[in-house]
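quick q for whoever's on today - can somebody do inverse folding on this one?? i tried earlier but teh output was garbage lol. tokens:
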């Protein structure tokens, strides 16, 4: 047993120690008594225990101070490191906030640009109603041609081609408008996704900024139940960055597609304008050329009519002369016949067939032959007069046909002047029908009959 253990061991009272003496003693009141060594041992034990407890307490105090300093430093550095992490996180969130804000501004400008292009395309589509109505009216006008003039000529083919070109342009423009509408919807959807992402980042930035401003002396801090528990929906930083990058890349892709679509819309409008102008000029040239041919034909018919009328007048004069000549022959024939008949009344031997008789007979035969010849010539003259009258009527009918055709061609050309006038705006109903390809101008039946 060590000395410390012996010192720390409680002492037994002296009464409990057997005392053997040979001398008689006085009777004393029983009580506990200790020995002197026990007394010394007891005092030594108290001193030793006090010193030892002081040493232990000193070591505990030193350990406590060291642990306090260590935990303070560890806590300070942990807080400092997390402050740096929160600050870095704030910088990263702020960088993405600015990126998303710039992207939203770009997509707003692109949405406005594609809407402007779509509206221009819609107005151009609406403007197709006038040339289509003009071409259709030209078809209806030229359908009024009569007889031989109702031919499938070059203007007819050019007008059919013009209607086909206009209908093709309308289909292309309508497709571009529909594509632009869909593109605006995709741009708007991408913008809304960016806005939601930006709003979330504003919220996250505010939370991180508030956490950065908190310290151990803040009044609104408290213990929280299990703050390190896993939260449903938590993602990794890589997933967070990939999500924002996906939204940004998607918006940039839609803006790129929108830019290409705007270029396609303007190209389609420009090409359509060139095609329509070229075909319109071709149709108008064909109409003017046909009008020139009709006017030449009408002038020729007018000249033929004039010549025929002059010939009819000459023929009628000749008929009158022939009729007069025939009438003039009758008295002569009567005179010759009367003379010859009167000579038949001669008596007796005076009834001779002399030269006078032969002469009168020859005269009668000659006059009859002349009359028959005149009558034959009169028949031929009247027949020629009838033929001339028939041709004159035919020429006059043809002149009426040509005049009607010229009037229709001029009306068609006059109608085409509306293509150079300002286009009046349509009603909302007509605009909706136009955009929905519900054509109320009647072009569909015409196209079906033509093609």
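ok took a stab at it. sequence:
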């Amino acid at each position: 047993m060590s000395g410390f253990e012996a010192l720390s061991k409680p002492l037994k009272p002296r009464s409990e120690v057997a005392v053997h003496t040979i001398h008689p003693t006085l009777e004393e009141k029983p009580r506990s008594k200790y020995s002197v060594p026990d007394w010394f041992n007891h005092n030594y034990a108290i001193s030793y225990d006090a010193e030892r407890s002081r040493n232990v307490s000193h070591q505990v105090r030193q350990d406590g101070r060291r642990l306090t300093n260590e935990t303070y430093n560890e806590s300070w550095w942990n807080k400092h490191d997390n402050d740096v992490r929160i600050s870095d996180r704030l910088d990263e969130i702020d960088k993405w906030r600015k990126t998303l804000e710039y992207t939203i501004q770009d997509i707003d400008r692109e949405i406005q640009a594609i809407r402007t292009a779509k509206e221009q395309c819609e107005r151009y589509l609406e403007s197709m109603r006038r040339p289509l109505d003009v071409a259709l009216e030209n078809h209806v006008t030229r359908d009024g041609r009569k007889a031989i003039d109702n031919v499938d000529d070059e203007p007819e083919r050019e007008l059919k081609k013009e209607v086909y070109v206009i209908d093709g342009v309308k289909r292309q423009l309508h497709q571009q408008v529909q594509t632009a509408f869909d593109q605006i919807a995709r741009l708007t959807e991408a913008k809304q996704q960016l806005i939601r992402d930006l709003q979330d980042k504003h919220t996250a930035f505010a939370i991180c900024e508030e956490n950065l401003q908190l310290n151990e002396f803040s009044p609104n801090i408290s213990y929280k139940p299990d703050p390190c528990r896993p939260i449903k929906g938590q993602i990794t930083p890589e997933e967070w960055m990939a999500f924002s990058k996906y939204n940004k890349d998607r918006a940039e892709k839609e803006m790129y597609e929108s830019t290409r679509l705007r270029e396609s819309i303007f190209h389609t409008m420009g090409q359509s304008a060139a095609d329509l102008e070229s075909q319109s000029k071709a149709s108008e040239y064909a109409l003017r050329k046909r009008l020139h041919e009709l006017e030449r034909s009408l002038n020729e018919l007018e000249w033929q009519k004039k010549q025929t009328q002059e010939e009819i007048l000459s023929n009628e004069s000749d008929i009158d002369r022939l009729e007069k000549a025939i009438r003039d022959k009758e008295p002569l024939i009567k005179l010759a016949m009367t003379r010859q008949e009167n000579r038949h009344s001669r008596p007796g031997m005076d009834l001779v067939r002399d030269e006078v008789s032969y002469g009168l007979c020859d005269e009668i035969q000659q006059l009859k032959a002349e009359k028959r010849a005149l009558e034959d010539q009169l028949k031929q003259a009247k027949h020629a007069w009838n033929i001339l009258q028939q041709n004159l009527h035919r020429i006059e009918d043809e002149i009426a046909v040509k005049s009607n055709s010229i009037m229709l061609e001029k009306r068609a050309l006059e109608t085409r002047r509306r293509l150079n006038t300002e286009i009046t705006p349509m009603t909302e109903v007509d605009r909706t029908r136009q955009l929905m390809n519900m054509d109320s101008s009647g072009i569909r039946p015409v196209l079906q009959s033509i093609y």
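fwiw DSSP finds eight helices and no strands in the chain. also Residues 86-215+236-297+411-450 form one domain. so keep that in mind when u check it
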